[in-house]
């Protein structure tokens, strides 16, 4: 466990931000072997452990990172450090996995302050362009520091047991962990992946602990984002907010005062396309499809699938449906809109308010447009669905409405095109230009969800598209997703971390040697170079 921060800080006087300094040889733990990205053990550090209780005992959680890392966990040794979510009796691993599961327990106060507070009511809204006002509380920040220290302590123990491992830290809950690892293991290959957006520097600057957060992430060798604009925002934030502590920016590389270099990359995450194709062909899915086809016969089904989150543009989508039905009376019995919403973060007041707003809009729209004797125009499921049922909804929906006000990637969009294509469907997809997915799924119908009337016109336009145009678009998007699936993303990330650890470490040693051989102050890493044009890599990521 790392030393705990001084609890006596009253908050009346801000401590100075300590900047990274070269570690002394005596401070170093064992020097790790340089990793082979294709074989090295992986120590993943993420907010949650990737398992959940199932009917037959503990099982891997569906979706997300757990799916992405399943092949890595089966074939390589390593560990996963994550919060146990309050569950007791978690197994040390699962049958068929080589990865050890290292649970972190949090106190009730830590769950309230670190998780619901700093992670979900400070950083989440802040990094999503502050579309809800972020709340800043010193107690939450202190809890966030303590919990990040606990995660780093468990990760350090795991890394000591796994020579040659790559440390891979995930998401905004753990922004301080890379630096905490770096301070104890200067040569450790460390990657940090942010799953959500990064805002413009002047928005990020609002958080009082902006330097600590940036320097925390910059403990990694490579810091990666879903989209180029998020990467660019992060680099500009580092340049403007860390200049006074000696951090310099050179293109997409950030140079720390100890001369260590940190690469930044764009690496859009994806889905396990083979799994979604399998689901599309599953007999259980087929049975569900038959039921849904009957239920919505004679109507075009528009679908929204989201966590119930204010970033997802659910209210704007409902207002657009309302505007459409207002304008086109003939569609009132021809179109149905189904919103599937996974319950999310009920402990945060903004989420409770959102749920009440969504349910209020649905009640009003149905009250206004339901024709006597006919079905309601808006259907609503507030629950998590089994994957076969979700796949069935994707298969029968004539149109998918993906309208976030801002989103890191949006996996739902990739899941929809994959299932549609596998079932030979010709659905269309309306995709917000403020998602990461919009940079990749170019054949979707773009929309600006803030313009609800414009969005309703896009829906009307999509309803009128020819079968062949819709089919061509779905095919092109599904092929793109299949060629850029999550397994490719994992392989590329691990390779980038291993390569950046070599380059960054070598650059630091070279510069320290040069500095040591010259009289006077250490040479500066040179003036920031102008940003070069970045070429698209064949996998859709950009090389910097
Ligand atoms: P999310 O905000 O949760 O993820 P998204 O990328 O769309 O958003 O992933 C949602 C996942 O939940 C999908 O895999 C979907 O299948 C599943 N899901 C949605 N509704 C469901 C339901 N009712 N029942 C069961 N499953 C449901 C965060 C970031 C995103 C980023 C991802 C991955 O906010 O921007 O794309 O991480 O990095």
Could you characterize what this model shows?
A nine-stranded mixed β-sheet has the order 5-4-1-6-7-8-11-10-9. A six-stranded parallel β-sheet has the order 14-13-12-15-16-17, sandwiched between helices. Strands 2-3 form a two-stranded antiparallel ribbon. It is 42% helix and 16% strand. The protein has 544 residues and is of the alpha/beta class. Helix 2 (108-127) crosses helix 3 (138-161) and helix 10 packs across helix 14. It is built from 16 helices and 17 strands. It starts with 41 loop residues before the first strand and ends in a 27-residue tail after the last helix. Mean pLDDT is 89; it is low at 1-15, 22-32 and 520-544. The structure holds adenosine-5'-diphosphate-glucose (ADQ). The site of adenosine-5'-diphosphate-glucose has 18 residues, from strand 12, strand 13 and helix 13.
């Amino acid at each position: 466990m790392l030393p705990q921060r001084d609890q006596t800080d009253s908050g009346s006087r801000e401590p100075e931000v300590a900047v990274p300094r070269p570690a002394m040889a005596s401070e170093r733990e064992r020097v790790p072997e340089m990793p082979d990205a294709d074989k090295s053990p992986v120590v993943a550090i993420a907010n949650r452990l990737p398992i959940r209780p199932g009917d037959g005992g503990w099982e891997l959680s569906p979706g997300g990172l757990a799916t992405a890392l399943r092949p890595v966990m089966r074939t390589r040794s390593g560990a996963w450090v994550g919060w146990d979510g309050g569950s007791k009796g978690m197994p040390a691993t699962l049958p068929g996995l080589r990865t050890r599961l290292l649970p972190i327990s949090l106190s009730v106060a830590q769950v309230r302050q670190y998780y619901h507070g700093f992670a979900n009511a400070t950083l989440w809204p802040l990094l999503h362009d502050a579309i809800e006002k972020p709340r800043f509380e010193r107690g939450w920040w202190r809890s966030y520091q303590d919990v990040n220290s606990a995660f780093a302590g468990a990760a350090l123990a795991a890394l000591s047991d796994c020579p040659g491992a790559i440390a891979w830290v995930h998401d905004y809950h753990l922004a301080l962990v890379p630096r905490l690892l770096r301070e104890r293991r200067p040569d450790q290959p460390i990657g940090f992946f942010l799953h959500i957006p990064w805002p413009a520097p002047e928005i990020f600057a609002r958080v009082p602990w902006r330097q600590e957060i940036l320097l925390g992430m910059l403990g990694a060798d490579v810091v990666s984002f879903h989209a180029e604009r998020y990467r660019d925002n992060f680099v500009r934030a580092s340049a403007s907010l860390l200049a006074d502590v000696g951090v310099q920016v050179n293109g997409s590389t950030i140079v720390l005062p100890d001369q260590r270099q940190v690469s930044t990359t764009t690496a859009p995450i994806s889905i396990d396309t083979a799994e979604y194709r399998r689901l599309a062909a599953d007999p259980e899915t087929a049975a569900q499809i038959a039921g849904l086809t009957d239920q919505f016969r004679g109507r075009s089904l528009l679908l929204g699938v989201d966590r119930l989150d204010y970033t997802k543009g659910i209210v704007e989508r409902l207002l657009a449906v309302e505007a459409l039905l207002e304008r086109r009376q003939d569609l009132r019995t021809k179109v149905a809109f189904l919103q599937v919403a996974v319950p999310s973060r009920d402990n945060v007041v903004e989420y409770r308010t959102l749920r009440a707003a969504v349910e209020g809009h649905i009640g009003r729209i149905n009250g206004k447009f339901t024709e006597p004797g006919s079905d309601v125009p808006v259907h609503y499921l507030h629950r998590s669905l089994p994957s076969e049922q979700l796949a069935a909804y994707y298969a029968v929906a004539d149109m998918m409405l993906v309208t976030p006000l801002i989103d890191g990637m949006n996996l739902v969009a990739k899941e929809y095109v994959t299932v549609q294509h596998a079932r030979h469907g010709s659905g269309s997809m309306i995709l917000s230009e403020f998602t990461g997915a919009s940079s990749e799924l170019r054949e979707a119908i773009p929309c600006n969800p803030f313009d609800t009337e414009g969005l309703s016109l896009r829906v009307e336009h999509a309803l009128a598209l020819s079968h062949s145009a819709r089919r061509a678009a779905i095919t092109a998007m599904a092929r793109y997703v299949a060629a850029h699936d999550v397994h490719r993303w994992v392989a590329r990330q691990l390779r980038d971390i291993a390569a950046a650890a070599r380059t960054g470490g070598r650059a630091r040693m070279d510069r320290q040697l040069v500095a040591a051989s010259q009289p006077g102050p250490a040479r500066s890493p040179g003036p920031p170079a102008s940003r070069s044009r970045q070429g698209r890599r064949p996998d859709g990521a950009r090389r910097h």
